[in-house]
## 1
Amino acid sequence: MNWISNYVRPKINSLFSRREVPENLWSKCPECGTMLFHRELTENLGVCSSCDHHMALSARDRLTALFDNGVFTEFEVPQPTTDPLTFRDQKKYPDRLRTAQRDTGEKEAMIVAEGEIGRTPIVVACQDFSFMGGSMGMFVGNAIIAAAQRAVQRKRPLVLFSAAGGARMQEGILSLMQMPRTTVAVEMVRDAGLPYIVVLTHPTTGGVTASYAMLGDVHIAEPNALICFAGPRVIEQTIREKLPEGFQRAEYLLDHGMLDRVTHRRDMKNELVSIIRMLMHEPPAVTGELPAPDMVETPEAQTDASQAQSADG
Amino acid sequence: MNYLEFEKPLAEVEGKAEELRAMARSNAEMDIEKEAAALDRKAQTMLADLYKDLSPWRKCQVARHPDRPHCSDYIETLFTDYTPLAGDRNFADDQAVMGGLARLNDRPLMVIGHEKGKDTQSRIEKNFGMARPEGYRKAIRLMDLADRFNLPVVTLIDTPGAYPGKGAEERGQSEAIARSTEKCLKIGVPLVSVVIGEGGSGGAVAFATANRVAMLEHSIYSVISPEGCASILWKDAEKMREAAEALRLTAQDLHKLDVIDRIIAEPMGGAQRDPDSTIQSVGVCIDDILTQLSSLSRDELVQDRRTKFLNMGQSGLAA
């Protein structure tokens, strides 16, 4: 603290401090306290090289790391009615939305995209915890439905990365209605005989866990991710006792039969590719460095290719 | 008779009338009928005034009224041949969820609902109507049974929400709720839900993903309790009035939002003042909906639910 940080208005202040942030920032691992070189941390997909702690990853960074050569095509999500209830708590809901949009540079709490992982075409829906806690409102519901429809139309598997504090309270009952809506989306993928794989990341809680995140054909979680319906604080308040170490963490859920696997972020892509290719009756993936694709394929070309593939199989 | 906080003035007037009558009973020479009748009329006017335009928070209180008819009352009064079926065939029988085979006007069906309990003992037994995973899994089993034998399913919703307990989480509460919602969507028989009191969050959705959803006039249906919402968004659980207002959890608002299909009128002063007529109105509504849905084929019923939920939320309340 110096005199200027007291004197200058907070907004201006944050502008200044942001500009001062150098490219080669060091970050501190919140788990073990090791100082990590920013570039190294990014290369390591946000995993601490010392204690393997999996840090938060924005949806965009996750997709860039996931798709071959970081190439993916986002597709449109039908825009729902903004602020359907004209909700206001201490702030107006549209103001909260705008703040989140400004802070994250994203439109909403989910990105839907298609592309290839290990030369395997997939559709991905990726939730962004940094956008209002990844909360599920009409937009997230629409995004999952759009992703499911795209998967069915292109005959591709759907991979969903979940990360959310739960429902978007500011959309009231309509956020609750995303539980049945997204369940319909999952049914569409299932009816089409396509795989639906859920990757549960930290944290996945509330109505999100109690709908699409727990309806996957295969459930994979990142290490130590908190996965629950009612959070540990609420439970401690209800039963008035301390909860055991590791309660509601990924490994705990694996022990209790709620997950298929807990997988390190570095191995996630290969694991997804391998599982998907088996479920889709495709030959094993070629591992190792792949040559860059000749060009970015147009969506039409991709459809033809995937149709040709399924016709062969 | 239990009075709610906002009914205090009414309680006084009704109490006075009762006192007068009690005095007259012990003293035959007193003629109090005129005064008592005047007090009665005053009470009626007060009641009508209070209930004419209930605020959302007051509606929450009415929806949670201890004397309000509960699931077991509906089952006892409306249905014949009720045969309770128990257990999830996995772990336990959840007392917070009751259900079984029954007939409504001779029509055989499956009825499932949350039961909150009537007194301290039964409330504890029923866990205040908060289901554990076993409850959802029992419901899934009963819906499956109904589906196989082509029986319509009626669900009566009255729960504060899922139970936030250690065991419930360990046994996969989230998965149980998700599967129950999925089962609601899948069955090829008519599914009708009535929110008779509190429709609390995921615990309610798990049973209420129905072809038609009706709500009693003073019942509520919400993503989170007003108290919970207040403590998160206002950082102050005492702001539940504001939260109840903002959440739009009343039957009237939900009807405007097209989230529910029908509102069932309650007697003056709420269901607790005349449980029998309330139960009868609910019965008429269920029967009417079942008759409407009976012409739909299995595929049409499934499609009807899917379309209903996919289209939900197109219009806001803004207007």
## 2
Amino acid sequence: MAEIVAAMALTHSPGLTGWFDAAPVDQRALALEALGEMRLRLEASRPDVLLMFSNDHLLNWPINNTPEYTVGIAERHVGPADWYDEWLALDKYEVPGHPALARHLVNAGARQRLALAHLRDMQFDDGISVPLHYLNPAMRIPLVPVTMNCTVPPIPTPARAYEVGVLLREIVRAFPGPERVAVIGTGGLSHEPGGPRYFWVDEEFDRWFLDLLKAGDHAALLRQCTLDRMEEAGSGGTAELLAWILAMAFTTGPAEVLAYMPALAWRSGTGMVVWNNLAA
Amino acid sequence: MGSVDRCDKTLPLNQMMFHVRRDRTLRERWRTDLAGLAHEFGLGAAEYEALRDKDVRRLHELGVHQYYVPQILRLFYGASANSNAHPALEAYKRAYPEESAQALELQARLAARGPKEG
């Protein structure tokens, strides 16, 4: 049976690689320190595979057909997509997949009435590329990417994301192999990509959300942090935090907040957290 | 309900943007024959004119998904060093002066507060 060995979450804003130097020096230093710490903790957990939850930025699926969740099942993944390489200022990379685990997710999900679309040629935008750059720079640890739709209405609720996270946790554990699996949620915090408040971040929301994570009462977080509250804090972007909620479902209790920055230059509330207690 | 709920999922321009971002040939057509490309994807006159005029506010009002709007500007202006001072983003500031002014005020407040509390 597979084992969950780490759970963490971080912002994936394209500014973290594409125009990193546009932010004030203190924010850059804080981000690099936290990302370095995340990488150390990830490596210390000795994962055989990264299960990364992110969101599709209208790249893999057209607006007339946006599955709630999609699993990348390829033997090898290549990114960033052509449209994103200049934007992210990243060279092309290739990272091994883990098709056995990825296909297990799709098929076991179906048996439990969880519809997971899948792609053999998933394209990668900032959601996967930026975290890989910082956390798996040698592209050595195999990746199973799971993207969700959190930007084309109807957007799933946080309660739904948690429910799916719990299901996925049980499905991963039931995988017939000894793999050590690290779970990473990417996205958020407050931002409104392309909306009227494109240059804004909602620091008050971000700190409130991080405090809820630190308090560690998952049910209370789900009661208070509704989809409407996320949308108020940045429409079509803040709901990327659903990926954090998926990761939270693999844990119990509080998260440790490594860093937070209201990074206007990167056009996103920017944060990094680690959960130290994994669900039994 | 946030601003993203204003998108018209059936708008031809939303479909066109999906394909243009994934296809280098279509991106070249964007530069050389935008009117022809728009016609092939079935854009209406208002959609095409808002696109041609890089009219951020009108694109939103017509139901273009808001994530696609900066991407439309990228296709016109390029992506290099996409800071908040990039010409593509100046178009946003013109479209939403009130929201942009609030963001600038926030930026000034954060800068004044200094790194220790950041």
